[in-house]
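Complex 494.
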Amino acid sequence: MAFSYFDFVPQDLARLSWVCAAAMAALLIQRVFTVPAHLRHLPRVPMLALLISYLSGDTEDVRIKRHILPYANEQGEGLVLVWALGRWMVHILDYKLAAQMSDNMSLYPKELPPDGLLLWRFIGNSNVLMTNGDKWRKHSRVIRDAFALPIPIDLFASLAKNLFAVISPPSSPQRTHTVDFSELAQRFALDAVGSSVLGHDFDAIRTESLFVREYNGIMHDIANPVYLIAPFLERIFPRKEVIRRMDSLVDGFKKLLQAKKDEPGDDMMTLMLKDPEMTDEELRDNMVVLFIAGHDTSAGGLSTLIYYLAIHPEIQEIARQEVLRVLGASADPSVGTLSATSLPYLNACIREALRINTPISYIVPRAPVDGVTLGKYYIPPNTSLIYNIYAVHHNDDVWGDPNVFRPARFLEKGTPRAAMNKDAWVPFATGARQCPARNFALYEQRALAVMLLREYEWTLPEASIHAKGLKNAFSPFALTLPHDLHVTFTKRQS
Ligand code: HEM
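Predicted structure with protoporphyrin IX containing FE bound:
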């Protein structure tokens, strides 16, 4: 018996739509979750655990500690396949294997991110972070020249004083104040990078910067978990409003650049502007990279340091006594007095904070141009490879007690463990593409720590959300940033 169009009743249509929807969902699931054939020989962290972790909003550090590291340890593997951001990537957890990758830039170039992802649209392609080969060499030369300028210690010290005025306003008769230090650290780091690198005073410590508010809002929107799990949705259902706001923020950077051209200063951006080879687009993209790379990372490191010194008053006091011995109660800090050799204990505290809650959990993926062998595995060309810094910093065999804040581990010398710890401490990554601002960032951390240690003693308030362990904010850029870190500061008697 033949059917005509009119023989379909509404129930049949409804059933057909359900079947189509189910088939589409199955295709979608298959596309998003199936391990590509060329990677099936690699050990992989169970998908379901990862998916539940993503859906429950776990931060990267939690996912690494709960799922990635336990699986790798159980299997005795130095690299594992991990599903993230809609695809499978190889995470390298062994620092020697990671060094093999970091030491060979031409074999392991940075992977170019797929077009259209909001995550990357903001950063742009024409900058030191996202280019390879000769283009990268051009950007890198200019950026490294800029970081060879003298470290602006006076600026760090004067920003620290601005911060004191917010922590304990001069008009307040009390000695004790509780403030959201994670927020203040972000404002401090932004002013530091704004004035010295970008050549723009955001005055973020003292004022409510609209620029910063808009940046934080956009970062929050980018982190929508649905789009992170299935990034191709960005193409099917583009988020026009977020894109509009993002483009308008990037426009703001263009204006800053123009202002810098009209009124040059002694900052790094002015130096970059003098380079005849840099186009306006490249300058703007580098400005955005320096803005993002230069403030959230430092802020995360500072918050972690302040947190661990708050919960370990004995360590805080040893660091303070060292600072008072070297700098006295009021001398202005200088490059000499703030060096790692002048303040070995404080420096060890900073290194330990950057290890235990490393600000960048993992680097931008690399993709080998040829097939390579890493450890016992063949890695096909174009496989996404990630140096999982957070995992390397929490490897039991390397650190012994990775979850314990123990600065003294960095004062040990001459033992096999000390040598291993030196090589496996990689918060700034390693190789030619390691952070060009490493020295700048370490001085920035020591400068603020010195000033705070002389001015205040601090603890966590009783009701702190961090009482049972440090909690980080969710970040689409794999940044490890403590959030809502309220700290109680008490002014020291002079
Ligand atoms: C504690 C603070 C910081 C940490 C832990 C840190 C860490 C890192 C890491 C791990 C990388 C490698 C990323 C990758 O290869 O994907 C990197 C690259 C970079 N960082 Fe930093 N960073 C810090 C502070 C800064 C600051 C203050 C600036 C600038 C003001 C900066 C600018 C950059 C730039 C431009 C790159 C790209 C280098 C390249 O690809 O050649 N960083 N950083």
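The chain is about 50% helix and 5% strand.
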